[in-house]
Structures are given as structure tokens and as C-alpha cells.
Amino acid sequence: MKMTARLNEAAVAHAVNTAHIPIEALDLADIVTVPLTPTLQPPPATYPTPVAALLQRAHHRLLTGGWCSGALADEDGAHCMLGAIRAEAIGQSGLETDATSVLLDAIRRKFGEHVDSVPSFNDAHGSDRIPMRMLAQAASLADARSL
Q1: How many C-beta atoms surround the C-beta of residue 48 within 10 A?
Q2: pLDDT category of residue 68 using cuts at 50, 70 and 90
Q3: Three-state SS across 57-108?
Q4: Crossing angle, helix 81-89 and helix 50-65, to 10 degrees?
Q5: What are phi and psi of 67, to 5 degrees?
Q6: pLDDT > 80? residue 89
Q7: What is the C-alpha separation between 128 and 135, in angstroms, rounded?
Q8: Distance between CA atoms of residues 80 and 28, nearest Å
């Protein structure tokens, strides 16, 4: 009984002593991860619209081939967001332009209008989590817009 009372006192003291510390909301996708074996991941069923399908293929390319920053592609075959789009567009510059535009729109919806470009957004991150998530969200956005 005494131990329970002391633990309750300690819990209240901790709550009071830490109440002034600001907290930042976390996105569960940054915390909860599951191990993936990217090369064994089959490509998902593609979106029926061309821009959404391109963005989805770019996402899958990053998932299986790796992500990089500072270059369209690195010596190991990893790509940045724009590099993956270009690699998947294969000569369809109009489709590449539309996909990049939708991706930038998705990024600005989430992170604000101050984002200058897809490459600057890509290079501002130290891991692939957020760039990968934004490619997936852009594919969904393009599909919703029937692009």
C-alpha cells in the first residue's frame, strides 16, 4: 500500500515537472516500421491513370532499388524522387512533367508552399521514409484527379 502511494506521488511529480516541455505530434509511419525485403516485394496493382501509375512505379523503384539524395542516381543504382520518375517515364517528357507537378503539389499540401522543388525537398531529407511516403501520396492524388 505504501509503495502504491509512493508510485502515485512520483507519477504526479513527474507530470508536474514535465508539463512545460513542448511536445511535437509524431507521424506513426515514422515510428512503426516493418522489415521489408524490397527485392522480393512484388509491384502493386497499378493505378489505371497514367500519371498515377508512373508515380507508383517510381515509388516501387525506390523501394526496390534504393533512395539517394544529391544526384538523380548514385553508383549503386539508387535514385532520388525525380530520378525515379525520369527512369520510369522512359522518354515520355509530358508524363514526367505532369507527375513531377502532382508530386510537388502533394509535397506542398503537406509541408507548405515554401518548398521550392522536388529535388530540394528530396535532398532535405536524411532517409527515404518521407520521400517514399510523398511519392505514394502523390500517386493517390493523381489517381483521384484522374491523371
Answers
A1: 9
A2: very high
A3: HHHHHHHHHCECCCCCECCCCCECHHHHHHHHHCCCHHHHHHHHHHHHHHHH
A4: 120
A5: -115, 145
A6: yes
A7: 11
A8: 23
